[in-house]
């Protein structure tokens, strides 16, 4: 890997710290289309579902035990749990849980998971401030815009170097959103962005450990604290983002300032947010999608299936070629298990990647009937699936873009199914339905 | 500025995360010479003095107001104040105050200010754990060793790129020290280092703002929380420091692993710690030192002085050439004011850089008699000073190494004078004397 090219520091960068601060504070409430606002509600609902879904898993339990050593004041909720902690630590914990299943939202241009840092900080702070739903939604859209635009300016160089871009841009999105909610002045918001800029979070080396979901959580906490400090008069460099020794030039050799400034307030990155329909790496989504569609179209039962033939892109085998996964987590790296789960259950949520399902003899039997071959004519976003049944029939489907992609976004109904699948098991069907309604109607 | 050279990722780096974790946990209590231990006490005392000295200044007040919005539990002390906050935020606030005057300790090989992150985290945690003085001193030496050795491995490339190395290495020193104090296992300590590694703090762009002293404070808090999380079973990459996408390779193109591993436990970086005798940039210390020495040797009074002639390195004029400073802070960037203060007061502490002193007509009158010329024969560490008196005498001194340098360390008596000068004004003479004795005798 080549880590860096030689570049000169850019001493003439536009004043993006100031530009973003003014944008965040001065942009009118709901100063965007209904479509952008609808996407923001979908983002909030999906974040809520993911956070509640993982709220009793080990990274959350361990982090919460550590936070409890601080005897925090009961200021804000932890989603899916009864404990309350101070707003900074609520942001931390909810940020961790929302990313624990790797099932949250994705801004595909940058692979940023934007809601984790921004929504986690906002929802905690809104409890203290008793903010209106509309204020929260405004701050959510504006905060995500800051994260994703900064992400656009540095991706892919920054990511290639080893940073987990969700955390490193999330500090800014969270600081921006909390500044808006706190009704800071533009000058204070500039300071909040500057204070956050000195505390980037996230290394890709942590993938596969609990510290991966820590990244959005720590980014949420850092951004929230930066806004609180700016409100109290704490200062930072007014050019903390763009100066030669400011954040962006320090963490990336690509610094495309236009990505931050052009069309600001007109084009909305948050409108491009997507949601994972399946609780695994995006590379096997087309294969699962095809299996689920064939199952539903032909009412396929596992015992009818003779063979499953996949033609896939080489990355599918490279990243998810595990033939005999033993544990739930390993199942996420097995296209064979994932397709078997899709054919049997008609979905591939967190439950389908539990130890119990991965070790289920019926799932293993079908998994062993899945064959995958690399086909150079199949793109990364596609998969070609043929299911042969014992009565000699062949069912075929070509998936060009999986469900959940920008080209085939999940419907609200599909999003709700995903939500209920995660949330009902934790807080019950009725409460889950209420939580869905609340998120989708927040501030309307 | 050239930001980076092209290098390949090093996939064969030694397991420094594991090596440091084992070192921190398994090294015997006071497993070093008396000289190393004495230096650690001087480090603790100097940190205490700086933290108390700045404890009512604006960065501390602003940060504390923000922390108070969280309604923290009264677990630990804020030095020099009556408020108590939770241990994580006590680490934050004490770390901020200890660096607010830029008057703290310096590991000259890396320009790391090692005590800020490490001592601030430790002292807060020790209140909760009721640790012994010896346990704290052991953890202080070991934590500083981790910070400074990682610093040696990446300096100067990492610093040149724009990182404030005090914060970026301080997270690791604080995590290591707190792990030791918590009596974590080596494996847990490895996780603590890994958790901290994802949260580096500090950009040089912030110099001159309150966010500069935030860096050691945030590093202290981050390192402390990382250790608490590791204690509770939170996981991170076992190679979070050395992996190709781990901290060290991500934040520096220079990765000299030998600086971490060679002589570990035999040679002590903490023994190389130094302390600033004057509350300003190190480049004018030789000039002030000379003025103070001439004043004391010849009992010089301001009204006797006709002229002060300095021969200095070009950096002195470049960095501190401000002829007519108006405010206290500007005085720190004026060799003219600094020499006048040295001649009048016999010192140049924080008081001598107050607005009142900088605006004092008597100081201004002497300042205007100071002339400085660049002399290529004078090194960065040196200064040549001649004072002409009205009775026609010339007093001359050549300073080759200023007081406070490795070559001419401050005596304990000089350190105590600096300490009392900062602390007595805040907590009174008697309490200040007790605080000095306590720090110098901690754990003995």
Q: What brief labels describe this structure?
A:
homodimer, 444 residues, alpha+beta, 60s Ribosomal Protein L30, Chain: A, four-stranded mixed β-sheet, 20 helices, 8 strands, globular
- Main sheet properties of chain A: 4 strands, mixed
- What's the quaternary structure here? homodimer
Order of helices and strands of chain A: HHHEEHEHHHHHHHHEHEHHHHHEEEHH
Bin the helical content of chain A.
Answer: 40-55%
- Structurally, the number of domains of chain A stands at 2
Low-confidence stretches of chain A: 1-7
Helix/sheet category of chain A: alpha+beta
Q: What's the N-to-C terminus distance of chain A?
A: 49 Å
Basic shape of chain A: globular
Describe the fold and architecture.
The structure is a homodimer of 444-residue chains. Chain A folds into two domains: 260 residues, Orthogonal Bundle (2-methylcitrate dehydratase PrpD); 118 residues, 2-methylcitrate dehydratase PrpD (60s Ribosomal Protein L30, Chain: A), CATH 3.30.1330.120. Helices cover 52% and strands 8% of the residues of chain A. Chain A is built from 20 helices and eight strands. In chain A, the strands form three sheets. The first copy, chain A, has a four-stranded mixed sheet with strand order 6-5-7-8. The first copy, chain A, has a two-stranded antiparallel sheet with strand order 1-2. Chain A has a two-stranded antiparallel ribbon with strand order 3-4. In chain A, β7 and β8 form a beta hairpin. The relative contact order of chain A is 0.13. The N terminus of chain A is likely disordered.
């Amino acid at each position: 890997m080549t880590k860096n090219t030689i570049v000169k520091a850019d001493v003439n960068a536009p004043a993006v710290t100031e530009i973003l601060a003014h944008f965040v504070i001065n942009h009118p409430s709901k100063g965007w289309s209904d479509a952008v606002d609808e996407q923001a509600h979908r983002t909030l609902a999906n974040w809520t579902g993911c956070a509640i879904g993982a709220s009793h898993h080990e990274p959350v339990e361990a982090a919460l035990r550590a936070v409890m050593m601080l005897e925090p004041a009961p200021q804000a909720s932890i989603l899916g749990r009864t404990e309350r902690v101070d707003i900074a630590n609520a942001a931390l914990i909810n940020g961790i849980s929302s990313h624990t299943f790797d099932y949250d939202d994705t801004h595909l241009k940058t692979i940023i998971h934007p809601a984790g840092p921004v929504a986690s900080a906002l929802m905690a702070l809104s409890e203290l401030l008793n903010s209106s739903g509309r204020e929260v939604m405004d701050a959510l859209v504006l905060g995500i815009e800051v994260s994703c635009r900064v992400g656009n300016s540095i991706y892919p160089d920054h990511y290639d170097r080893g940073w987990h871009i969700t955390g490193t841009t999330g500090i800014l999105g969270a600081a921006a959103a909390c500044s808006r909610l706190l009704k800071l002045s533009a000058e204070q918001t500039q300071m909040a962005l500057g204070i956050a800029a000195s505390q980037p979070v996230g290394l890709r080396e942590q993938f596969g450990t609990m510290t991966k979901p820590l990244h959005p959580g720590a980014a949420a906490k850092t951004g929230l604290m930066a806004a609180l400090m700016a409100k109290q008069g704490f200062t930072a460099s007014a050019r903390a983002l763009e100066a030669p020794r400011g954040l962006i030039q320090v963490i990336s050799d690509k610094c495309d300032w236009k990505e931050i400034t052009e069309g600001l307030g007109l084009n909305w990155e948050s409108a491009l947010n997507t949601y994972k329909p399946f609780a695994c790496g995006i590379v096997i989504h087309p294969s699962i999608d095809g299996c689920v569609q064939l199952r539903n179209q032909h009412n396929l039962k596992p015992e009818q299936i003779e063979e499953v033939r996949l033609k896939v892109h080489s990355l599918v085998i490279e990243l998810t070629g595990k033939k005999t996964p033993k544990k739930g987590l390993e199942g996420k790296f097995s296209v064979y298990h994932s397709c078997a789960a899709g054919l049997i259950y008609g979905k591939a949520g967190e439950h389908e990647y539990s130890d119990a399902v991965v070790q289920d003899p019926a799932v293993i039997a079908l998994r062993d009937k899945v064959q995958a071959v690399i086909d150079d004519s199949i793109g990364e976003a596609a998969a070609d699936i043929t299911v042969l049944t014992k009565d000699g029939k062949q069912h075929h489907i070509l998936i060009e873009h999986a469900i959940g992609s920008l080209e085939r976004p999940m419907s609200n109904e599909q999003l709700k199914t995903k939500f209920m699948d995660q949330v009902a098991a934790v807080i019950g069907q009725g409460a889950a339905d209420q939580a869905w309604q609340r998120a989708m109607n927040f501030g309307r």
